[in-house]
User: What shape does this take?
Amino acid sequence: VVEGLLNLHIKDIIDVAFYRNGEGFMGEVVIISLLATGVLVTNTILSVLKGFYRRDANLRLKKDYLQRVFRKNINEFNNESSARYVSNITNDMNTIDTNFIDALFELSLAFASFFVFAVIIAGVSGRILFLIIGLTLVMGILSSVVSKPLKKLFGERSKLYEAYTTYTSEVLNAFRIVRANNLYEKVTEDFGKRSRKLQEKSFQIDKYSTYIYAFQNGTMTLVFMGIIATSVYYAIKGEITLGGVILIVNNSERMMRPLQMAGELYPKIISSKPLFRSLEESLKNTSENIETDEIDEFKGTIEIEKASFSYGENEVFMDLDLSFRKGGKYLVVGPSGGGKSTLLRLLRKYFYVDGGDILVDGMKLKSIRKDSWFRRIANVEQRIFIFDDSLRNNLTLYREADSDAIESAASAAGLTDFIVNLPEGLDTVLEDNGRNISGGEKGRIALARALLSKSDILLLDEAFASLDYNTARDIERTILMIEDLTVINVSHVVIDENKSLYDDIIRISGKGASSLLERAGVLQ
Ligand SMILES: Nc1ncnc2c1ncn2[C@@H]1O[C@H](COP(=O)(O)OP(=O)(O)OP(=O)(O)O)[C@@H](O)[C@H]1O
Assistant: This one.
């Protein structure tokens, strides 16, 4: 608007000088100086606003995405390579930043500028305004048609990026295998091929964009010439003043450029559609389950009744009947592939039974809200994540806990000596997913975390596998002595000295389960 007013007054000052012999000239000079300063100020404000807008839009997009990733069903998240999410947050969001967030801002400015100058040019000549609009619309339609293939190319590049990021992170994860087996030539060759494919696609996009820009610039020059010729024609006929011709020549570009920009920006904005779709797809849960029940305390039993479960064609359980009571201690053993971890996954609600039921205190586990159920259970799995933070926060997982509770959980998990030897005790910062601590120490941290969580049910998946016999025996014993805690321990390590502390030893194999304690003589 300020720029528009400035241009109107430039027209006036020319007409004043040309037709009225300088009368009112000084007044116009003052107004023009003020408006020119105004343009400077508003442009500065606009740049700052644009910076804020881009920063906030980008942050919000990433934050919302990550929040929604954490709402995915655990099994569905595990089915994907996490590199897909990394690729979405980095590659796709960077493309969205320039092709959508930035483009949307520029497009809004372009339209604002278009309308302001349309009003101003309409004041000089309505016919010329229609001519400009007509010609630039034709130009816009032509350029949006020629830039259609760009949309497809952007979608294809996003898919390539995704596969590329997945591949690169997998190769880096396999670093040791690659080194130890001298596979780097093979890996480098594969990597080269994939990189080339990606670069080829970017090259195609650049090449195509150059053709489009050349086409747009060419047509724009032609249209511009036509407008100059027409306004000079009307000036000769006496319908437009000299100031009017200069205003049109100076500013028709400000109407055409937005339309031309719209022609450039629109395909960019539209090309973000497949990216948004791919983001949405990565966040989609295919199975939605309605959960209405809450559980504040585990009071009675978990009953698994005639449960069946398959991974696709692979049937793991058929008519599985099992019962766990509050405070009971259960050791789950069985052959590899027998379904022990699957049993824990069902209890953790990663998957749901296909037939039969799992009932907790009479309520279907399926309909208990995940957040409520996850407060009742504590997990110790083999893959343990250590946060880049103090040992204290790694133990409490950012929940309130007093020093006594931390100390006793740490002692039950066999961590006391480890903590004493740390330079700053509980305040020592563990870095890089616990790179500098051993597997056994990580395992004990996970156990202490589980004990501190004050959950009712402790699910252990090979939790003692990385500990030496004596440490495993002592920690297992301490855990089995906790009265109200229900323990379901899946383990290959069976410690004879602790067997008598279990209420049942359940063997899971094939499609069913059997109690080893009921078989006379097994424990003795
Ligand atoms: N995500 C999955 N998708 C498809 N099949 C799976 C999946 N996870 C496990 N299986 C299959 O289900 C069966 C049971 O696997 P599970 O991991 O529960 O056995 P397990 O008793 O814990 O074995 P292990 O002692 O070796 O850890 C196996 O045949 C396994 O191949």
